[in-house]
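Supplementary notes for students who missed Thursday's class. We covered one full example, reproduced here. Read the sequence, then the structure, then the short commentary at the end.
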Amino acid sequence: MDNLVTQPIREAEPPFFDTARVTAAVDALAEQHAGREDVFRAAMAQLLKGELIAARAKAQAMLLKDRHGRRCAERLCLVQDEIIRILFSAATRHLYRSPIPSGAERMAVVATGGYGRGLMAPESDIDLLFILPYKQTAWGEQVAEAILYCLWDMGLKVGHATRSVDESIRQARGDMTIRTAILETRFLAGDKPLYDELLARFDKDVVQGTTTEFVTAKLAEREERHRRAGQSRYLVEPNVKDGKGGLRDLHTLFWIAKYVYRVREPEELLERGVFDAQEYRTFRRCADFLWSVRCNLHFVSGRAEERLSFDLQRELAIRLGYTSHPGLQDVERFMKHYFLIAKEVGNLTAILCAKLEDQQAKPAPVLSRMMARFRPNPARRRVPDGDDFIVDNNRINLAAPDVFKHDPVNLIRIFRLAQKNNLAFHPDAMRTVTRSLKLVNAELRENPEANRLFVEILTSNDAEIVLRRMNETGVLGHFIRAFGRIVSMMQFNMYHHYTVDEHLIRCIGFLQEIDRGGNEEFALASDLMRKIRPEHRAVLYIATLLHDIAKGRPEDHSIAGAKVARRLCPRLGFSPGDTELVAWLIEEHLTMSTVAQSRDLSDRRTIENFAAVVQSVEQMKLLTILTTADIRGVGPGVWNGWKAQLLRSLYYETEPVLTGGFSEVNRARRIAAAQAEFRAAFTEWSESEVNAYIGRHYPAYWLKVELPRKIRHARFLKANEDAGHKLAINVGFDEARAVTELTILAVDHPWLLSIIAGACASAGANIVDAQIYTTTDGLALDTVAISREYDLDEDEGRRATRIGEIIEQVLEGKLRLPEVVARRSSRTKVNKAFVVEPEVIVNNQWSELYTVIEISGLDRPGLLYQLTTALSKLNLNIASAHVSTFGERVRDVFYVTDLLGAQITAPTRQAAIRSALLHLLSSDEAMAKPAA
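Structure (token representation):
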């Protein structure tokens, strides 16, 4: 067995893992347990497990000290290599020694996949390939099993395959996953010539002539992976391994480079001219950072956790050495760095793809796919209206290397020309843009032509795509410096799905969708867009881009953002009046959403107060459109039909106040129109049945509930009354919002909301919003949305049935709710990742008839039950409740009176209410105590 290699390719670090000592210990065990194979195997597994645990502990200590993730991944991989080599040596020398091996008794043990790259996260799987010269032999099977069983006994997750060279080549031709695994192989132990044969055959029989096929497959795989993980690289709980801009994207880059350019090491990308020195340094820096995050993530969670969830982000920020600054927490600074790295990974991908396109390894893009079929065959030609730019394979490129130096306005013009001519961006041009950012100085920022071009970009088609490219190159943040401060900034909360810059750019995309019209979910906003004054269109676009521009500052971001707008808008060519209007929109951009979701819209005082804020119908139109785009841009599932209907109700309730006084006639007309719409759409009943049903609902119902829900309610009421049910629950699933909706029909009861909330809490269901309605004949029709717990609708349905049973048993007096909730609460884990300052406002100015109590704080299971129970114990009647959650923050508003139906006016009583509710919000122990 002259070709047998059992020595390490590289020497292990002596203080980190002592291969010689461990090998000697294994040899001693073999001698001690000679003739008792099972005992020797068990003892060897125990020994190596202990060594691995000690080595991992050392690796973690060194990671905390040097914070170098790549080095940590290399150390962990090196230890694993040495353990496998020791196992191979033990198997071939002590267990299955073959004194005179035949030609078939040869084997190469090879690392594949991620392990083959020579980098391992603490909880990563190990992928091994046992290469044989021909078909499987008894000796080969025994050696492979000895190694695998010992690794499994050590508690490791091992993926493995045993194949001959011929079989490996045959499968690699037909399976892209196997082809990629072989591309990443690394020799560990055994017969080196056998491994060399595999590599030579792979190059000759698989790789040659298939580069286009491989590149296309890998890029398609990447797109599918991004789709599964969430398309944006700016999702605030990113997947470090599989998310956009994560490690897998870097791996895909290298796979493609290895396949196309036949390189073995990343530094060879420099020699082949794929990356220049600066880009290669970026490649290394991105990989180092992402490996630091991934290794720490595995160590902290104790499992192969790849998602940077909120509960892990803060601990990682501390481990990686981030500190808090004014306006930005340590965790927000860490995540900002993460997203900047993800952006760099995207840039590197674009550079490599450009090289491949030049070699015709992948098809060329256009800015908008819809226009592609109208485009003639690409040729290098001048861009219309831009002598400094050429069209290069459907992409805008530079006519000369110094076009930006010659005229810095070109740094803005290139984006406008690409937008006008529907051209994608050539990565070489984007490279030069990024390297010319020092030209974006005070003079360019004040240049009227540059500012005119920017406003054109903002208000023209495909603005979202172009602004994103401007952001990725750094131009946007340099041209509007306030924007530069929020690039890659995350908000450490569960409400916003994206970084601040990505949210603002997405909002522009949704504003354009509203502007185009045709999407029913934006019907009101699209209608208003056609009715605003034409000169206010640009006002709306700049207000949308700037509405969160001051996030991360100590001052309230709405007020600080209005100040930014007052400084910036004159430069962009806005008049003093329009500048002030932009500032007002930014200052008030949260007002309409807050009022719509947390106030009683049938209360005249609510409408009058809102009218006083918006001042004119034109300003209300603009604010409605901005609010729609803002909510929709927060993330998938946040905007829904219910919120659309609330905004519509608030708009139409307020409009008559602004056009000449509160008009009951106008309101009556709108109620009649809503009822007529219901009649036209719902044709299942006779006219008399429909008339009787309409009479059962109060006027507010017809204005606040969207039509599809009204129809579902009608069917639900009739079906259950026909069946004679006193209590009924209808279950619906809203996939976009990831909630289960429970619609509950019951005889109205003063404590019904509290009972529903308690039943949900006792079933472990967290209420994220609620719509409460009563009929004129004494029935309650309440809809609560609860966070999904199960993937399958059937399981969610069973949980809903359990909630219904609890409500029924409580109403019949068979069950005491406080004890059931207390039992469940003692097992409920409270979210410790977030801190939300609790606040309670008791206000008599928001309603003429009721005292309004607004409660905000950290959401937790069972909180609504505790609040409603506490209000009842304070001898308050709840007239209406408005329940909403914004990620981890809850805002519950209750319209209440005392037991005689009067407002709470005594300051001492108000103070007692505030104190009791603040205590409930602040107390962690409240979860474990019965509420009554």
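Commentary. Residues 1-14, 366-378, 925-932 have pLDDT under 50 and may be disordered. The two ends are 80 Å apart (CA to CA). If anything here is unclear, bring it to office hours.
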